[in-house]
Write a structure and sequence with these properties.
It is a single chain. About 30% of the residues lie in helices and about 25% in strands. It is α+β, with helices and mostly antiparallel strands and about 270 residues long. The protein folds into 3 domains: about 35 residues, no CATH class; about 120 residues, Uridine Diphospho-n-acetylenolpyruvylglucosamine Reductase, domain 3, CATH 3.30.465.10; about 100 residues, 2-Layer Sandwich (Enolase-like, domain 1). A 5-stranded antiparallel β-sheet has the order 4-5-10-6-7. Strands 11-12-13-14 form a 4-stranded antiparallel β-sheet, with helices on both faces. A 3-stranded parallel β-sheet has the order 1-3-2, with no helix packed on it. α2 packs antiparallel against α5 and α8 runs antiparallel to α9. The longest helix has 22 residues. The protein is globular. The mean pLDDT is about 95. The structure holds flavin-adenine dinucleotide (FAD). Flavin-adenine dinucleotide binds next to β2, α3, α4 and β10. The site of flavin-adenine dinucleotide has 31 residues, from β2, α3, α4 and β10.
Length: about 270
């Protein structure tokens, strides 16, 4: 849609003072999907020339904020990345047309901060760390799970830019399990739960997204039984943290969260261990 309050577009490569009414433009799939009366100027990131995906010297993966969902899906994942299938599962949880897939960026998905942001699910579950750049050029790092702090609420200062997300090699080597539910076929995720079993110390991490307003992570040094998992979920997620919108009632989201977490517990700690 036309954003008729936007008076100017600027290439982000040209530095300028950040003003009230400025907004970074990633793929624009959210920004151009509804009125944005507070925005006066868009700062376009599309020509930054950042390498979309880089395997780091330590064997991790650096995902540029401007990497599109389509690029992430196409990227060949080395066989040693046991977590490889999780990328496609999360890309497919983005229930959108190929046009959205080809334009939407990983950074835009995180910065939108929707509970159903599948790139938030993926990167939070794989211990992702955001690299953030302030208007002064200062850099800071923040785990993805601490970056999204509520429905649409991010730990971003005015004018701060998400530059990239790095997934460590150890997380890429974890065995993962994925469960996702929508109220209707091709609907937005109402609950998305990911389990990851650490390849070194067998720590189990359960990451809850979509059903909750922010990513919630639980770590178990020893495989929990069903009761311990249930207790941990009850303790970790406050009743008012279950998201409530047209894509699912909180009671249904809670039910699916508990069910999926238990399925994942069995898949990663019982069935897989036999
Ligand atoms: C049909 C359809 C289906 C969709 N389905 C889903 C879905 O299932 N789940 C979901 O989460 N979303 C969905 N969306 C919303 C949107 O497409 C996604 O959230 C998408 O990932 C946003 O990425 P983008 O690059 O297009 O972001 P933009 O629209 O360009 O930006 C989104 C927000 O992030 C900010 N931003 C972008 N990049 C940066 C950066 N590097 N640093 C700081 N701020 C930045 C922008 O200023 C803006 O506030 C859907 C949209 C449509 C139209």
């Amino acid at each position: 849609m036309d954003l008729n309050t936007v008076a100017e577009m600027r290439d982000a490569r040209r530095r300028d003072t950040w003003r009230p009414g400025d907004a970074w433009l990633g793929g624009g799939t959210y920004l151009f999907s509804e009125p944005q009366p507070h925005i006066r100027r868009l700062i376009d990131l599309s020509r930054m020339g950042w390498e979309p995906l880089t395997v780091t010297a330590e064997g991790g993966l650096e995902i540029a904020a401007t990497c599109t969902i389509a690029e992430l899906s196409r990227f060949p994942k080395p066989a040693r990345w046991t977590a490889g299938p999780l990328f496609e599962q999360c890309c497919r949880a983005f229930l959108a047309s190929w046009k959205i897939w080809s334009m939407a960026t990983v950074g835009g998905n995180l910065c939108n901060g929707l509970p159903a942001g599948p790139m938030i699910s993926l990167t939070a579950a794989l211990d992702g760390v955001c690299l953030l750049q302030s208007q002064t050029g200062a850099l800071r790092q923040l785990p993805v799970a601490d970056f999204v702090i509520g429905a649409g609420v991010k730990a971003l200062e005015p004018g701060e830019l998400l530059r990239s997300i790095t997934l460590p090699a150890r997380a890429l080597g974890s065995r993962t399990a994925f469960r996702q539910a929508s109220l209707y076929g091709l609907g937005r995720s109402g609950a998305l739960v990911i389990g990851a079993l650490d390849p070194v110390d067998a720590m189990l991490t359960i990451t809850v997204t979509a059903s909750t307003v922010r990513p919630i992570r639980m770590r178990f040094a020893l495989p929990p039984n069903a009761e311990a998992l249930r207790e941990a979920l009850e303790y970790a997620i406050e009743p008012n943290e279950y998201f409530d919108d047209i894509h699912g009632l909180p009671a249904w989201r809670r039910h699916m969260t508990f069910r999926f977490a238990e399925e994942i517990r069995r898949e990663l700690t019982e069935e897989g261990g036999r």
